[in-house]
Specification:
The complex is a heterodimer of chains A (300) and B (214).
Chain A (H helix, E strand, L loop, with lengths): L2 H17 L6 H14 L3 H14 L3 H17 L3 H14 L4 H17 L3 H17 L7 H24 L6 H23 L4 H23 L9 H33 L6 H13 L1 H4 L13
Helix pairs in contact in A: 1-2, 2-3, 3-4, 4-5, 5-6, 6-7, 6-8, 7-8, 8-9, 8-10, 9-10, 10-11, 10-12, 11-12
Chain B lengths: L2 H6 L2 H11 L1 H17 L14 H24 L3 H14 L4 H13 L3 H14 L4 H13 L3 H14 L4 H15 L2 H14 L4 H10 L3
Classes of the chains: A mainly alpha (300), B mainly alpha (214).
């Protein structure tokens, strides 16, 4: 078909669509129209027609494909709000196939982030991660696994930032409760991210869990002491605090060491080095050492 | 061996400088001095350059390179690695077939964090002189810094098998097992081999006591 013939076909199909909007053939005409618009490089019009296919068609597979493709086309044309509408309808309707569901939720968090709507972006991130956890065995493609790992990492970082905002000062009980809640969220998300085999994400996630625990240990030790304690009571209080804090430091050391151990099987990134830097501070007797090299002369 | 010791004990190297390494380039230098005299028109108002005898030119050039080498090693010792790297760069340009210059150039590049460049210089050095165990040790350390831990382990094991009298290699191998493999058995084994050679390292001996499996 020539370009001229294509434009003629588009004109006739658009007439049919407007005269018979409820006709049983209209969804097929819309589908044909969307293809014709794509072939004549009119992606926005193609997206409009696909969006209509998704509303009118009785064929569920066709509806699903049309919704997703409309979302992609709107996104490619910078029509973010309309892309969101299509992806959102897709994600609320189709959990399977899982890989494509992940693409839709990933696009939603990306687009909401672009629109500076962090609340909605995180809503879809949580959907991605919880689905990834529930159906972990069904995540067949590397891409889907990457999406889950990456979104979990972003949520983990977010929770870590919130965790750091709470200082252990009066009112101690509520601040401690909030800090612990964010610590648990952060470590949960980082643990999800660490399950997947992507070097940079895995090593960062392990590092970050270690950092959460190490920071919590320091926060406990630096926490505000109650005014009402006598000298002896204060001493006992300090001992109790140390008992609480040191296990977190031990866990942090263990996590950083896990990262180093991964390097011995070739999994290495900047986070491995950063883990070593942390270990040098936490356990200098073991880790603050340098490999030895010196100037080279023939007598060596 | 420290840099100071290296400077003190490099008499053999100086001998080499004078006898072998610079023979060809200095012959060319002398020839070019002579030729430059031929291509210029004689000018009565300017003094005519007196050709330097070849043996004397070799000696002057060897002295210059020796001084440059020792100065550069001193810069390394004081931690001025950027200056050392630039100076070694000139040295390897002047004398590209000298493995030791390439090796120390690599060391300065490593100290400056230029790991990929260091590896290239190391490989050039090893091509010229494959049995320099200090260079093999340096290569392993650069590989560790790059995160190529299994590759570094293999290189170190191969090297200590060939050169069982290498304390630094034993130490580094022990540290590698201790740090990245979390393997106390192998760490203890190689710390012990290191201490069998270097007896006065109290700190390492103390550490070995702590990690030695019962």
């Amino acid at each position: 078909m020539t370009i001229g013939e294509l434009h003629q076909a588009i004109k006739m199909s658009e007439e049919f669509r407007s005269v018979f909007p409820q006709n049983k053939f209209t969804p097929d005409v819309l589908k044909t129209l969307s293809i014709a618009y794509l072939n004549t490089e009119q992606p926005l019009l193609a997206a409009n027609r696909l969006s209509e296919v998704a509303q009118l068609s009785k064929n569920d597979e066709l509806k699903r494909a049309a919704l997703f493709q409309a979302g992609e086309l709107y996104e490619s044309q910078g029509q973010w709000q309309r892309a969101i509408e299509n992806y959102r309808q897709y994600a609320h309707t189709y959990l399977q196939p899982l890989d494509q569901y992940m693409e839709a939720t990933y696009s939603l968090s990306f687009l909401y982030e672009k629109l500076e709507n962090q609340k909605n972006a995180d809503f879809w991130r949580r959907k991605t991660v919880s689905s990834g956890e529930r159906f972990a065995k069904e995540l067949s493609s590397d891409r889907a696994q990457y999406i889950v790992a990456n979104e979990a990492l972003v949520l983990g970082r977010r929770s870590f930032t919130a965790f750091k905002r709470y200082k252990l000062v009066q009112p101690l009980q509520s601040n401690l409760k909030n800090k612990k809640r964010h610590m648990q969220d952060a470590s949960r998300y980082f643990k999800v991210a660490a399950r997947f085999p992507f070097t940079e994400i895995k090593t960062e996630a392990i590092f970050q869990i270690g950092k959460v625990y190490a920071d919590f240990s320091v926060a406990l030790l630096d926490s505000e002491r109650p005014n009402s304690l006598s000298e002896i009571e204060l001493e006992q209080y300090e001992i109790l605090l140390e008992d609480q804090a040191f296990p977190f430091e031990d866990q942090a050391i263990e996590l950083y060491e896990n990262n180093l151990r991964l390097a011995s099987v070739g999994v290495f990134s900047q986070w491995t080095k950063r883990s070593l830097v942390q270990l040098e501070k936490l356990y200098p007797a073991r880790y603050k050492k340098e490999f030895r090299v010196d100037a080279v002369i023939y007598d060596d | 061996m420290t840099i100071s010791n290296a400077i003190k004990s490099e008499s053999k190297f100086i001998e080499r400088l004078k006898c072998q390494a610079f023979h060809i380039p200095l012959t060319l230098l002398t020839a070019s001095l002579l030729l430059s005299g031929c291509t210029q028109s004689p000018n009565v108002s300017e003094p005519v350059p007196v050709p330097i005898p070849e043996a004397q030119a070799v000696s002057i050039e060897a002295d210059r390179l020796e001084k440059q080498f020792l100065d550069t090693l001193s810069e390394m010792e004081t931690g001025d690695y950027a200056v050392a790297e630039a100076a070694f760069s000139e040295l390897v340009e002047d004398v590209p077939n000298e493995a030791m210059y390439w090796a120390n150039y690599a060391l300065s590049q490593y100290k400056n964090g230029n790991l990929q460049a260091a590896l290239l210089s190391i490989d050039t050095s090893l091509t010229l002189k494959p049995r320099l165990k200090a260079v093999l040790n340096l290569k392993a350390v650069v590989l560790i810094e790059q995160g190529k831990i299994p590759e570094a382990e293999k290189l170190m094991l191969d090297t200590v098998a060939k050169y069982p009298d290498s304390p630094k290699l034993y130490y580094n191998l022990a540290l590698l097992y201790d740090t990245y493999f979390q393997d106390a058995n192998n760490a203890a084994l190689y710390y012990q081999r290191y201490l069998n050679i270097v007896k006065e390292d109290v700190e390492t001996a103390r550490w070995l006591k702590q990690i030695r499996p019962n």
